[in-house]
Queue: 2 jobs
Job 1
Amino acid sequence: MTTPTFTWNLIADLRDMWSLPFMVNAFRAGTIVAVLAAIIGWYMVLRRQSFAGHTLAVVGFPGAAAAIWLGLGAILGYFACCLAAALVIAALPSGARRGYREESAVIGAVQAYALAAGLLFIALYKGFLNGTSALLFGSFLGITTRQVTTLAVVTTVVLAVVAGIGRPLLFASIDPDIAAAHGVPTRDLGAAFLVMLAATAAEVGQITGALLVFALLVLPPATAQLITVRPGPSMAVSVVLAAATVWVALFVAYYSPYPLGFWLTSIAFGAYVATAGIAALNGWRRRRPQPVGARA
Amino acid sequence: MSPVSQRNRETDSAQLPDDQPALVAVRDAGVVRNGRLIWEHVCVDVAAGEFVAILGPNGVGKSTLLKSILGLVPLTSGEIRLLGHAPGRANHQVGYLPQRRTFDASLRIRGRDVIRLGLDGHRWGIPLPGRRSRAAIARVDELIALVDAGAYADRPIGQLSGGEQQRLLIAQALARRPRLLLLDEPLDSLDLPNQAAVAALISRICRAEGVAVMMVAHDVNPILAYLDRVIYLGHGGAVSGIPAEVITSATLTALYGTPIEVLSTSDGRLVVVGQPEAPAHHSDRHGGQP
């Protein structure tokens, strides 16, 4: 690949980038993944299931490594392993609801073992060492059109399910006891959400690498929830932030010698820190003495 | 409310008219959980519009009684009818406020949205703009006005005080115009002025909306002035009646089989001395899975 030269004419730069099929696929795949991560991540942040999300993503690493070793293709490995892990977590006693605090040691142990198993599969495959960094920290090279199609289909299915169960899922996420009393099947919704989270982690992992999925799964939704407390607009802001993060990161990574995962995470983290700083400043301003309103 | 009208109402409800069907009828009910007897031989009736407190020492199964009325905890003996149906069949006509501490401070959801979820959060699909959506928004505004939460309903609920959160949750429980409110220690973790204010609010709603209220309480005093009846729960059964008849040394001593003294302070507060504290079962308290 010849070193591309950056000009300040951004449109020309984009046109230059998109003359390369692998960059077009990178933008397509990145945008698809960003939209899904922004929505599922929004629920994950609300449900405080970041730890489960990270576990599912890390489990994708041995899955992909094993699939490559067996000649099955990384995509299948990501999805198969993440979905299997989600079903296991969902089957743990009280797993989907409030068990994460007690089970954190178990999940931590599984994370460590998943990484170790992934390293084993890479060692077994031999000559795959260049791919290790891509599996762990992401890459925008070599995304095939077929992979983009797979990502788009999975995203469409998951988002259709979210449209169907999103409202009771929100209820169950905020207030499981009251939701259950209203006839919301909180346990089944929790399991369904874990499966959707696994599909999302498997998708995001293919772009950001197994260890950096939070660049898209946590940072944009957390930033959006700081910006607005209205559920609908907050989800929309999350999608815009995630997509913008991917676009800017791909743009910068194309011209820079540093990896995509670094740029993705830096941009998303920068936006989060800036938003949190502004929110803290506003909160500090608001806490100054004010007249107390009349109370009933 | 004057003491005279208070006494009259107590007398009225003490003699429940026979033609008025009970909202809740508990007949010789018993619950065993994890091999431990919670309570048995419990009989309770609650009529429309009544304000009833469920009292008793820690661990006696007050929350379990509410959950078994909702069908969240199965009975091992006896029967419960809720609005003439088996438990769990008429929950859409019940507003339930489980025991809790508070929402997590970092929860970025408005009080308004929490109330809205009580109205249509159980429905599948996306809430599309239209007549139903406008009606829901209007109902939420009405509920916010009912509990005087206009000043803070649009702020993140995690940042509100315990009393403000409790008012919003009461509004949520009222969203579907229930005929019965089941409140599990709603005054718990509130300071004294807020306890008084929320108790007055619940009583006002009970009268204005014609909603019956069954409220689990650790301390009867903040609600004593508003109550129609109290239910004192023990492992071997329950005693119910007007507070002056039930909260007495003789009744409670008979219920618990151990000497109990009820003292009355000069300002009309009741102090129960010597009631047995059951062995702590903390796993069951504060919203454990039924």
Job 2
Amino acid sequence: MTSIILLSVFGILNLFLGFLRSNKVLLPGAMLLLLAVFGANYADWNVVHAPYFNNMLVVDNYTVAFTGIVLLTTILLLPFSRSYVTSGEPNLAEYYALLLFSLVGAIMMIGYDHLLMLFVGIEILSISMYVLAGSSKRDSRSNEAALKYFLMGAFATGILLFGIALLYGATGTFALSQLATAVAAPANASLQPMLYIGILMMIIGIGFKVSAAPFHFWTPDVYEGTPTFFTAFMSTVVKTAGFAAFLKLLAVALPAAQGFWMPTIQAMCALTLLLGNVGAAAQSNTKRMLAYSSVSHAGYLLIGLVASKGILTGDAASAIFFYSLAYSIATVAAFGVLKLVTDHRQNDSYAGLNGLGKTNPLLAFVMTVAMLSLAGIPLTGGFFGKFFLLAAAVGQGYIGLVVFAVIMSMVGLYYYLRPLIAMYMQPAPDDATSVPVDGIQAVTLVVLAVLTIVLGIAPGFVSGIL
Amino acid sequence: MLTAVLLFLPLAAALLLLFVKGAAARALAFGASLVEFALAAFVAFDFKAHGSAAYNLDYNWIPSAGINFHLGLDGLSLLLVLLTTFLVPLILLSAFKRDFDNPSTFYALVLFMQTGLIGVFTSLDAFLFYFFWEVALIPIYFLAGAWGGERRVAVTLKFFLYTVVGSLLMLAGFVYLYLQTGPAAGSLAQHSSELTAFYNLKLSASEQSWLFWLIFAAFAVKMPIFPFHTWQPDTYTEAPAPATMLLSGIMLKMGIYGTMRWLLPVVPLGVSQWQKPVIVLSVIGIIYGAIIAIRQRDVKRLIAYSSLSHVGLMAAGVFSLTQIGLQGAVIQMLAHGVNVVGMFFIADAIERRTGTRFIPDLGGLTRRTPILSVCFLVMLLSTVALPLTGGFVGEFLLLAGVYQYNAWVGAVAGLTIIFSAVYLLRMFQRVMLGPDSSFSETITDLTGGELLILVPLIALVFWLGLFPGSFLHISEPAVTNILALVGR
């Protein structure tokens, strides 16, 4: 709860900092504020809090753990907004404020215990993201992305809200625990169809937010058009919060309806894995590849939902936590490097990375670690992420799904290697100069790489904590 | 403790190398690899040959999943660690001869790979084994891909995809086995991935039947066994010489070692079911590799196919499931490692002097290069398995093992010796002897630095040939132990 209050206050504070007209203060300011929030969030670990707002929001270890991921991701992402500082972007204070507010939405999505709280959280997060997607005002691609994201997103939120309403109609409650009882022992059997349609609509609404197929079609276009800095935020924080919310919905409110949603989620999972990986393999643009890759990772995380079998703690939940953490760190690293390189070289195709191993060994190394982690190669966090997820699913007997996921991750190897081939095995263009990286960005990149490797060597300290 | 030093010393040196340039980098890399060899040699002298693993290092790696960082050395592991630590300094020395970009990164990757290899040869936990198995792959991918020849991008991609697909299948097999295990004593986790836990599993024959192929996929690609070999000749040819030496000299042995440690004793019923098909495939590989080698006009490709042919014999020996066949495979792993590294080094030495490795362009080199010719001939004759050389002992024992399994198969496998004499002596004749080529007068003989690499290799060839017992007795209890587990 402290983190929500702090973030809201700091968001407003940030707006006022904008009056100083000094972008130099903003970046370190925002980072310090977020570090403070991270500390406050950590202080809630293993502390029992009574639910807030008439049982609408709970702060338990589940909330604290996933909140920790979104905060850490944002802290590590912020240094890559440096180009806004140096270019004198007039609206930087508003961007940071929106990021902080959207984090409030993310935390509400993670900690909700009441469907309305979920809805409000999703809306806070989404509306901030609609604005930020279009933040590059003079770029028509960014405008297109914002409009697409807004129209599709508004539609999906509408469906979600419709689903919530139907669920309420069928059970008479918004509270997760009461929903669970009402679903397990329905008072009126004639309302069952309404319940199922409601569940399906909620799955569609959240599936859209986490870009799970077949509701992923907006992802490549929006990711490509959105300024890279915000794309990174979108593909990490939004996805992590979305999956935390998804798992909670299925595990706390709807375990009794497992017979209904389990086949749905399984089908979505297989489809997401297929479309994400095959789509990514067909790309020649790094950013679009990462967009499809984020779809495919939604597929792996869906395996976690399947394996959870409606339980919020234990192997599957821990695996989803670990996977989200490893994925977020690697994705921030990949987008961070991509942003620095494209800002300098103005080319976001694979060829834009050519010869980076020569001109910028550090950037190339961090990108390599990120790609290997996303591909799930040992020594990186991504390997243990996949390992824990797939082991949890095998443990529950979903062999077919796991085999399919392994085959798809073989496809993944192909496209994750392509940036590496460009960086190390293609010559740099003749006029290529080294990409400028300032101190704080270099430190952040090293931290990202080290974190990924630490997760890949000593996963014990965060595995199995839920 | 010693095992940990053995494992992490090359890694530490590799990390240091990222900050060191020029001559200091060479000194650091070579120094570290020599210290590593000294350590391994010390372990070898200190080693008491018995069946179970010594120098255990057991650390609770991922407690919630029952995965341990468990390393240990038995005779089999020890010999392969010795081979690795013996060859890496020589491979580094050979890399010093070459002129390329970013040399210190190159040395760092070689040492990083050494850590992976030693990890593979000493792991006693399935996931740790898989972990190091992939760790060894990453540096060699970059070594071959970033410093390789013209077609490197496509070739290394193929190599990488082949091997990773193979190892993912192995991982799938391991996960299945892992989920069948019970908790280890004193562990909180429900399962255990210890090697011994896998050995103690009681699995039905039908389970073992498909598990066999899941696990064997990784090893078959790595060796490689026909028909999983298509990545091999291209990769050996395109990779820079030091990377080719690592691939053929050491990495190939990961496949044989893995089969002996992680396949035969884990799924014995699957092995007995598939023994015949695998031996037949191996023998096909022997003949196929040899016939293609005869037709090759590129020295490096010829050696690559020769290696394919010889590894087929090793696989057949292992799958004969006889004491003599397995012991032959052990000694042949050492001999082949030495031979093939020497052959590739000499091929590279010729290429650096003449700028070509195309056999018809060469000829009559021997007049100006007596030392090179002698060294080449020794390596070649050991590969052909002439008595007194290491190759003879290995191939003799292997053939004896295969013969015990089936006389006819043994007879066909025996063709390997005749064939390799054909293609290797023909190559020698056309490259070193024969009519003069444009290089006959200008070529220079081996330098002292190059001899520094070849003399230890040649010494080991004769040591293996004359006193094979000094190596065989180290591995004997380990091999007996493996066969006892297979025969249970």
